[in-house]
Design brief:
By secondary structure, the chain is α+β, with helices and mostly antiparallel strands. The protein folds into three domains: 49 residues, Electron transport complex subunit B, putative Fe-S cluster (3-methyladenine DNA Glycosylase II, Chain A, domain 3, Orthogonal Bundle); 75 residues, no CATH class; 117 residues, no CATH class. The chain has ten helices and eight strands. The strands form two sheets. Strands 1-2-3-4 form a four-stranded antiparallel β-sheet, covered by helices on one side. A hairpin with a 2-residue loop joins strand 2 and strand 3. Helix 4 runs parallel beside helix 6, helix 6 packs antiparallel against helix 10 and helix 7 packs parallel to helix 10. The relative contact order is 0.12. The structure holds iron/sulfur cluster. Iron/sulfur cluster binds next to helix 2.
Length: 267
């Protein structure tokens, strides 16, 4: 549901670049489709979370992308049913216990049963669990090298970069701007650590979402005329262990988890 009365009214807040990333030929066509109910406003990857918050009243219900993720879960779960857990544990850095594959994600134990059902005491969402199943099914098990690269430098990263910037780095920077304690909490809640090397950022936190997929969040605080900046780096082997599309979805899942936590607690 949106707050617009006509396609033209909605068109005014769109980027008007006709880039087609929403799957429609123009921004005006997209506006008309949203008004008809065929598309959600957040199908345009170039709208900021603030604009979505203002104009999309049902942002907490599943988005089209989340629905697609839920749908893909059935296929992944069927593939897990055929998985050799011992081999998968060796590759993914997990272990097998009582017939379940245990994977340490962000310092929390995640269990995958032989029907592909993921459970954890930690708050989770399909943006996090679908990449996890892809990690255990498709990851090559390449050990991290210690060389950091940006998301754009991963295989196929430039294609996903606009969505990645919009749904991962931008909202995470906004959270960090608003909640300066975010990084201390990342260390406490998600077993993060402060690495020695962090690209001269004011703050750097290294997280381990999956055992062989580390990421490094770097934050530069605002200074006089300069606005703050945030960038997430990945080990150069990340593309071996998770297809880049799912590295993006994992990043978006983490941001959503942090947004939920920040709503419940004062970070
Ligand atoms: S993705 Fe956004 S900017 Fe691109 S055509 Fe669709 S509505 Fe316009």
């Amino acid at each position: 549901m949106t707050t617009f009365k006509s396609p033209l009214e909605l068109y005014k807040i769109l980027p008007q670049t006709n880039c087609r990333q929403c799957g429609l030929p123009s921004c005006l066509a997209f506006a008309a489709e949203v008004l008809k109910g065929g598309k959600r406003l957040d199908s345009c990857p170039h709208l900021s979370p603030n604009i979505l918050d203002i104009h999309q009243s049902d942002r907490n219900s599943p988005t089209v992308l989340e629905q697609e993720l839920n749908d893909s879960m059935d296929i992944l779960q069927a593939q897990v049913a055929d998985l050799d857990f011992q081999e998968a544990a060796k590759r993914s850095g997990g272990l097998v216990h009582n017939g379940k594959l245990l994977i340490n994600c962000l310092g929390n134990k995640f269990e995958i049963n032989d029907r592909g059902k993921v459970s954890s005491l930690c708050h989770t969402n399909p943006w996090f669990t679908v990449p996890l199943l892809n990690y255990v099914l498709k990851g090559k098990g390449t050990p991290p090298s210690g060389e950091w690269v940006s998301f754009r430098e991963l295989p196929g990263g430039s294609e996903w970069n606009p969505l990645y910037r919009q749904r991962c780095e931008k909202p995470l920077k906004q959270l960090a701007d608003k909640h300066p304690e975010l990084f201390a909490d990342l260390i406490d809640i998600f077993s993060g650590r402060q690495p020695q090397h962090h690209f001269d950022a004011d703050i750097g936190v290294q997280l381990l979402p999956y055992p062989k997929l580390p990421l490094l969040i770097c934050y530069w605080q605002p200074e006089e005329d300069l606005v703050s900046k945030l960038q997430i780096f990945y080990d150069i082997t990340a593309g071996d262990n998770l297809p880049t599309e799912f590295v993006y979805r994992l990043g978006a899942g983490l941001v959503r988890m942090l947004e939920k936590i920040s709503q419940r607690h004062t970070l």
